[in-house]
Amino acid sequence: MSNAFRDLLRKVGSGNHTKEDLTRTEAAAATRMMLLREATPAQIGAFLIAHRIKRPTGAELAGMLDVYDELGPKLQPIGSSTPVMVLGIPYDGRDRTAPISPLTALLLTAAGQAMIMHGSDRMPTKYGVPLVEIWQGLGVDWTELSLDQTQQVFENTGLGFVYLPQHFPLAQKIFEYRDQIGKRPPFATMELMWCPYAGAAQIVAGYVHPPTEHMFQVALSLRGTNNFTTVKGLEGSCDLPRERTNIIGLSTPDITDESGLVAIDRLHLSSRDYGFSSHNVPCDPTEHLVADMRSVLQGKPSEMMQSAIWNGGFYLWRAGICADISAGITQAEAMFASGEVAQQLTRIIQAIESIQVRDRSYSQL
């Protein structure tokens, strides 16, 4: 048993009147001890549920991110003229609305904007469809790639996926505790801001509850991250809904607010203002979702196509590729219709196959 960890556990788990927030340094120490298994299973489980009940602070989340930055994997910088866009999406997947982000990633990388995604398999507490299953259905299997192989795909195509079971097993083991306690611990909030990239990046973090955005703002400001976007998206993802007004936060790197934090410009977007209907695509079985995505890649009109264009238009603008959202929507529609996005998927599949064939050949020498 770790006595040092017990002291930190006592602070967060002492009840409504005597509980204390951890400092950034203390949160980092607790995270490190959990990831390295210096704390016992009983201590880890108790900390995760106590910390959820207490609710995390931005400083605590910054400390957690410090340790992920220290112990976690990183894709190395590539020759990108713009910051790489890193999508922070809940690891426990989707079960009500269709994920759009794979189509967004294909569109943006086809347009020259490098992107990184990260995640795992079906996991607690939702056990919704994870991104890796969608990618596998599209013919892209990130789960078998080493970090070095993923780096090569990233360099060749502009798209990378950090897969926790393969690339960050220390963090993957924590999910066993999530299943047992039956609730998302603050780790689930921290992961939305995690940046497994060693170069200049723009963090895009999805969320559900408004207080989470302020925690993002505090944590990222403390860590010196001033290029980020917050999205009150579908099921806490970065996917823009169509049935309600989108609430989006755009960081202003050179401006701080009255608290000294990186300031956020508020943007409210309604899909209706851009000619879209108020309809989100439901989360069908994975094979149906993949079939719908393939239809989009073939340029066929559908509700998923409308969501893909809506999301693509926004992110093309946010990446600086298009002058405004209307221009982004026009470009997204044209790229799906012309087959450019489908060609990008083919390039990624071919890049993975080429790397795997080459590495198998080397191993046989």
Automatic annotation (TrEMBL):
Record bears the keyword tRNA processing: no
GO molecular function: anthranilate phosphoribosyltransferase activity
Boundaries of every Glycosyl transferase family 3 N-terminal domain copy: 6-70
Record NCBIfam families: PRK07394.1 (NF005635)
Lineage of source species: Bacteria, Bacillati, Cyanobacteriota, Cyanophyceae, Chroococcidiopsidales
GO cellular component: cytosol
The protein, known as: Anthranilate phosphoribosyltransferase
Keyword Glycosyltransferase part of the UniProt annotation: yes
Gene3D superfamilies: Nucleoside phosphorylase/phosphoribosyltransferase catalytic domain, Transferase, Pyrimidine Nucleoside Phosphorylase, Chain C
Boundaries of every Glycosyl transferase family domain copy: 95-340
GO biological process, one term: L-tryptophan biosynthetic process
Keyword terms of this UniProt record: Amino-acid biosynthesis, Aromatic amino acid biosynthesis, Glycosyltransferase, Transferase
